[in-house]
Amino acid sequence: VKTPDRLVHVPPGVQCFVGNEARRRRLIEERVVAVFEGWDYEEIIPPLYDYAEVFAGPALSPKTYSFVGRDGSVLALRPDFTSLLAKVAAGRLRDRPTPIRLYYSGEVLRYEPPKAGRQSELHQMGLEHLGGGRSAADAEVLAIAAECLDRLGARSWVLAVGHVGVFTGLLAEAGLAPDDLETLRERVEGKDAGGVGEVLDRCGVAPEAARAVRRLTELQGDVGVLDEAARAFAFSPPASAAVRELQAVVGALQAAGLGDRVAVDLGEVRGLDYYTGLVFRAYASGLGFEVGGGGRYDSLLERFGRPLPAVGFMFGLDRLALLLERQGTLPASAAAPAEAVTGPLLGDALRQARARRAAGTRVRFGNGGER
Amino acid sequence: VSLTVALSKGKLLAGTEALFRRVGLAFPEGEGRRLVVTAGSLRFLFVKDMDVPTYVEYGVADCGIAGRDVLLETGSDVYEPLDLGFGHCRLVVARRREASFAYESTSTIRVATKYPRVASNHFLARGVSAEVVRLAGSVEIAPGLGLADCIVDVVETGRTLEENGLTPVEDVAASSARLIVNRASFHARREEVGALLQALRSGVQQEGRNTQNSGSLSRRGAIRPNAATPSGSPPAPTRSDVSEG
């Protein structure tokens, strides 16, 4: 009789890790979590599901697995951690003084076709810094991300840092329709100067702002880019303020010895409905897509009734594992060989095995049939 | 070998070779059937045109050359920092000349295309329900044979459409060849990628000036590079698997 397909097939989007693969992931998780703890972040283990409203947002909603609870309320499997942490920080931890530093490590579920090292079920490790000084918090989380990559032994990695306030600041007075703004954002994100120009022309954006927005597609590279941006965007107070903010953070990272690891990219403008300030992505040579990223989101907490500035980031465990495997930089994680313990009398053998265990030895308990 | 570049042996190959040679970059000579070829300091991958963005998105190739039509279809998350100024064409909706379908009077439009994602998005945005029939080629014959009401396809000159009794009714997007770059390579290998980008940009600008002086070559998609090729024989470009419109 053939085993039913559903008892054999693996549904798309989920994975199963066995033995060394699982051990490797655990090792990565332990190292990252140790860095988070080292910077005095507290772990939070939020629920697997919550009311769907908690995760409402144009980016996440379409990717959320939602279902109807027994009382008729719409629930959703967590598609990210940040909303849940924001809810707890604004609710249960309402009276706790800021800054609040929280970290998490666990799976999220997203309804998207498996692609680019990303499944529907993904393990994220990240942290949120709620309240506190903006530049200090931004610099802190970037330094933490950098330390994680170092501790994992990753090579030739770089943090590409931008600030969405430059883009939104330059266009603050342009009065673009949301659709046009999104098309423009998408073209800036793709560094497509021609496409950016087309949208700007079509929308009749003032020449000075249009010239400046076009430059966002090329203003990337080392820290000197920020001086150039400061000069080029001096006409726009909000864009200049954003550049100054970025200068303060990048300057601090440079002073702390991370100058080589920072790449400024003013065309990094993902998630405008969510991010409000500094944004960054971690890239490394050997893996085509980012291993992590994050940024400042000062308006999210207000939704939950406690307006607080916030910044955070996360790493994808799957992608980190892939990167370290490609780079061959993860220390060997195979288990120590086990000592076989066996004997004619089950009780004697078991006593001996317990004694070996008490001494910390890895044992393989055999009773007869097993080698 | 520093960078890996993904190319297709389709309609963009000739323009690509001309550009590389113009700026003094090595380009594979007629390499027959080899799909991975090193020339100078670059490694070239020859893949299907629709696969170029995938190789670049995954970082298997650091850079690639792909039409905007293909990028729209694959929706790949890559940088596209340079319009290379050749391979111009348009993505259009076309129907039979004598047919008279109107969106208002058709509940569901059946559309044959090699660009299912582009077609779906186009009709979604217009509020029209469309049944997309995915074909691998020869899309132009579908309306005449009753397989579809219309097609979404690329056109360059419009001759193929005309010869098959079709006429364009709506523009979907304009297209041209683009340099695309993997996100991680762009940042983690900034100097090498930047140098290639700079070289190609200068070649595009140079060609732009030449074209201004000597008439409009630029609207022609596949410029045969023989005349412009300073040395070596071009790798016989296979006939495009993308239809000449």
Tally of strands of chain B: 11
Stretches of chain B where pLDDT is under 50 for at least 5 consecutive residues are 215-245
Could you say which structural class the secondary elements and strand pairing of chain B correspond to?
A: alpha/beta
Tally of alpha and pi helices of chain A: 12
Residues in β-strands, percent of chain A = 15-25%
Largest sheet of chain A: 9 strands, mixed
Walk me through this protein's architecture.
The complex is a heterodimer of chains A (371) and B (245). With 371 residues, chain A is of the alpha+beta class. In chain A, 39% of the residues lie in helices and 19% in strands. Chain A contains 12 helices and 14 strands. Chain A has helices at residues 20-38, 82-90, 134-151, 164-170, 178-189, 193-203, 207-215, 224-232, 237-258, 300-303, 317-327, 346-358; strands at residues 42-43, 49-51, 66-68, 74-77, 100-109, 121-130, 157-163, 220-221, 262-265, 278-284, 292-296, 310-316, 339-341, 363-365. In chain A, the strands form 3 sheets. In chain A, strands 1-5-6-12-11-10-7-9-8 form a 9-stranded mixed β-sheet, with helices on both faces. A 3-stranded antiparallel β-sheet of chain A has the order 2-4-3, with no helix packed on it. A two-stranded parallel sheet of chain A has the order 13-14. In chain A, helix 1 (20-38) runs antiparallel to helix 3, helix 1 (20-38) packs across helix 11 and helix 8 (224-232) runs antiparallel to helix 9 (237-258). The longest helix of chain A has 22 residues, at 237-258. Chain B has 245 residues and is α/β, with parallel strands linked by helices. In chain B, helix 4 links the parallel strand 7 (108-113) and strand 8 (129-134). Chain B has a 6-stranded mixed β-sheet with strand order 2-3-1-4-11-5. Chain B has 7 helices and 11 strands. Classes of the chains: A alpha+beta (371), B alpha/beta (245). Chain A binds chain B through residues 116, 156-158, 160, 190-195, 217-218, 220-221, 263, 265, 281, 283-290, and chain B through 56-60, 77-81, 83, 178, 181-185, 187-190, 194.
